[in-house]
Specification:
alpha/beta
Length: 418
Amino acid sequence: MNTESMMRTLGQQARAASRAMARASTGARNEALLATARALDANRAMLEVANRKDLQAGRDKGLDDAMLDRLELTAGRIDAMIEGLRQVAGLTDPVGVITDMEYRPTGIQVGRMRVPLGVIGIIYESRPNVTVDAASLCIKSGNATVLRGGSEAAHSNRAIADCVASGLREAGLPETGVQVVGTTDREAVGHLIRMPEYVDVIVPRGGKALIERISNEASVPVIKHLDGICHSFLDRDADSEKAVNVTVNAKTQRYGTCNTLETLLVDAPVAETLLPLIAEKLRAVGVELRGCEATRKILTEAGEATEDDWATEYLAPVLAIRIVDGVDAAMEHINQYSSQHTDSIITDNYTRARRFLTEVDSSSVMVNASTRFADGFEYGLGAEIGISTDKLHARGPVGLEGLTSQKYVVFGDGHVRE
């Protein structure tokens, strides 16, 4: 079977399975998750053998240490996958919930019911634990899914998929409710993102190049974000201790995430006070500072920030700093350069905080908090399948509700329209 035929077969099976997944009870879907957790626990040796094959192949291909670390399935990461499945099983099921019911003047009742999207194609790189994360959220939300992981994790993903299939089978659900693409042929992705008759939405998880390709080529709707160019603005009425602590955390808690601070904006009246305090802590952990001309007059050791720096997601220990004149200038900078991911203001001024929340057009906007909180778990979603900076359907961290839609439901008692 060639790649196109294989992908169409997967699509047809997913579409058929999606109907069974949508009508399955909450109990059956939860049992599938818990049975998958048991299967992972019982098959640790199989998972480790498969993962060792991927790690050895990665070393042979010259993958760097960071990539190999992302690829590795340690005992602790298997534990985390198992715990994640149990946590998702414990989440409130959004499917079938009816809201906004009201009587109309005609006597009918109109409301909206939350329903699964159908078939979700998920394309991701490197980390095999994403296979479980993605599968669990799709199962819980009543969707079928086709998963295309990175070729470097092919053996691990297949081993995990076997455990998921076992869990679905034990719960009486179709094994084709979760399918992992069995080929590493890059053409498989191209077919997956162009099958609107079988796939309802695509979720890409990976680097900017992958997401750009899928966004440009897909004929299926895509839930995605490209960059995480996140800002913090230190207002003239910011508490100094909060400003320093939040800035350092937002930049250094983890460097390689999409919600890491990349550009710091500082109100001119407090720049001479706050910047040296912040710079001292950042230099101590090896963060490179790049600043505008006004910044470099205060921080003489900072490098020069160019126009490119304002539009760069570093994912590294580098921070761009710009001194601005007030909240209007800060918001103008953010709305010009932000990727609409996450932006924060540090201030004790209620009026400016409310303006910032209203006028900054990003999927997460924060007051006196680190941008690192832009995360499904931290938002109480239990888990997330990704972050969306789109404005339609889902925005921000995408959890169970983001994997569902709504349809209108109408109750009558023999009502006819006059």
